[in-house]
Amino acid sequence: MLHEIEPEQHGPLGPEMAAAVSTCVHCGFCLAACPTYKVLGQEADSPRGRIVLMKEVLEGSLPLETALPHIDPCLGCLACEPACPSGVPYRDLISPFRANAESQRRRTLGDKLKRLLTRMTLPYPSRFRLAARTGRFAKPFAGWLPGNLRVMLGLLPDRLPARQTWDPIYPAAGTKRGRVALLVGCAQSVLEPDINTATIEVLTRNGIEVVVPQNQACCGALSWHVGDLTHARSFARKNLAAFPDDVDAIVTNAAGCGSGMHEYPLILKGTDSETAARAFSEKVCDVSVYLVGLGELQPFPDRGRRIRIAYHDACHLSNAQGVRTQPRELLRSVPGVELCEISDPHLCCGSAGTYNIDQPEIATALGREKVGNVISTAADLVATGNIGCMTQLATHLDQQGSSIRVRHTMQVLRDAYAAADTLSL
């Protein structure tokens, strides 16, 4: 047991960090679950190793700069949590540690520029759309740009879908069974806005009134996971003010966003918003959880078609929120669907928020391995519940010349309900 850390020494997040460190018994069960340990093969790049490093930094016995090369590559995928027999809350350590360390670390000019561009664009749909369109014209000159900017340009899609907007309220079809508020997301609203449209259609078809708060902001997860506590708190407070109280649930359809909103009590710990954040987070749930909780859904028509669907577990849905069975249950309820399991489902695809930008080599290695496992299923389509995973899978499937399509679980359900047979291939 590790008791040397003084919890209050590191601000309001100190007790959580100290508790996480003291819970670890160094058994090593987390090593096999950790994607970066699998790629890098070093003890210091495993959850157990990182916990030791963070403990020593917090105690003052190890310089921060010595630990950062091993802390930075952590995906924050939380695959270590379900693998841990001691129940170490690793999420209560990694993000608070990064937030605690951010003011002390020295960054290069390139790193500062990369973080500034990311912070000023990704959380804001209008800015992100403009940046993506502008970036397309710079792609031919990418070879002349610094490495960080070159990576960012390479991740931009060649084409963006048409802009979509959503009304403040969508009435339930038929008998009203509930009322929810929907987070539409920032990057998702630009890269694949149809996910939100599909989510609304599936919910309203099943008797749910959907409220889309017009003043909602980025969930804050992107900021939180890279240690930017100031902006994470700002986004969290904006959403506390924007979302109504008179709803049954605050529904998310992006794993990273849902996980981030569940962490609002920790993000806002020690502030006057902590109590409100706790009440807010208790209402947050993934749309698949909400739909399964309704019980019987509107039946899907049987069109006599058969389709093999591989389901990919988004890390911040399966590991962070414990949501694994509900999406599978929904997909299996569609007539003609044969659900395929992917090998090593616990291993991250390498997306993880801004990880492709921050750690491109590891992200690429994990993306290739994940897509190889997807292709091995011989599926017609791969479904998942997170926009980052969708982008990563689509990129690497395309690079490997695969015809497997990538769809969000809600898009699959919406298409199954649709009059046109859009599930046919």
Percent range for helical residues?
A: 40-55%
The general outline is globular
Helix and strand composition category: alpha/beta
Enter the CATH topology name of the largest domain: Glutathione S-transferase Yfyf (Class Pi), Chain A, domain 2
Overview of the molecule:
Strand 8 (381-384), helix 22 and strand 9 (405-408) form a beta-alpha-beta unit. The strands form two sheets. The chain has a five-stranded mixed β-sheet with strand order 1-3-2-4-5. The protein has a four-stranded parallel β-sheet with strand order 7-6-8-9, sandwiched between helices. The longest helix has 17 residues, at 360-376. It is globular. It folds into four domains: 7-102, Alpha-helical ferredoxin (Fumarate Reductase Iron-sulfur Protein, Chain B, domain 2, Orthogonal Bundle); 109-155, no CATH class; 169-293, Up-down Bundle (Glutathione S-transferase Yfyf (Class Pi), Chain A, domain 2), CATH 1.20.1050; 307-417, 3-Layer(aba) Sandwich (Rossmann fold). Helix 3 packs antiparallel against helix 4, helix 17 (287-293) packs across helix 19 (325-332) and helix 21 (360-376) packs across helix 22 (387-399). It has helices spanning 14-23, 35-40, 47-59, 64-71, 80-83, 91-102, 109-121, 125-138, 147-155, 187-191, 194-205, 221-225, 229-242, 255-262, 264-267, 274-283, 287-293, 315-318, 325-332, 355-358, 360-376, 387-399, 409-417, and strands at 169-170, 178-182, 208-211, 249-252, 284-286, 307-311, 337-341, 381-384, 405-408. With 425 residues, the chain is of the alpha/beta class.
